[in-house]
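Q: Got a minute? One more chain.
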Amino acid sequence: MADQINTLEELSAVAGVEIVAEEVITREPVRDELGRSYATGKRKDAVARVWIRPGSGKVTVNGRDQDVYFARPVLQMILRQPFQVAGVDGEFDVTATVKGGGLSGQAGAVKHGISKALQLYDPSLRGALKAAGFLTRDSRVVERKKYGKAKARKSFQFSKR
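A: Always. Here it is, folded:
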């Protein structure tokens, strides 16, 4: 163990193989001329278009305040999660338009859009958001109804006679 290998060049000379060091990719912030970042979030049948910009933490969904649009506290908590995980609570204003699905799916879509927009605005937040699983689109959707069935899988009541 007296002769240790310290560099990539020494390792390539000993192994007889050429080793190429890969460059580290640094992400650039993506912002429009107004200083906003845009992303699309999806969940179930809901699709949310989300813009974020530095501000006081005001969230507007379809022209209404988040407390009015998402009246349930659980849905409001879902919208706050990306900011809390990234550690930027109250630093960004959010404007979102959301279509399709129900309120729960729409809240999930806005959360997904906020997460994607945050990591586009500040790429250093990507690690925390990705570790929390907020950048992954939840692909679960309602299964379609099949013919001969009451619902997607439920059968009609069986009668022997």
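A: The longest strand covers residues 46-54.
Q: Perfect, thanks.
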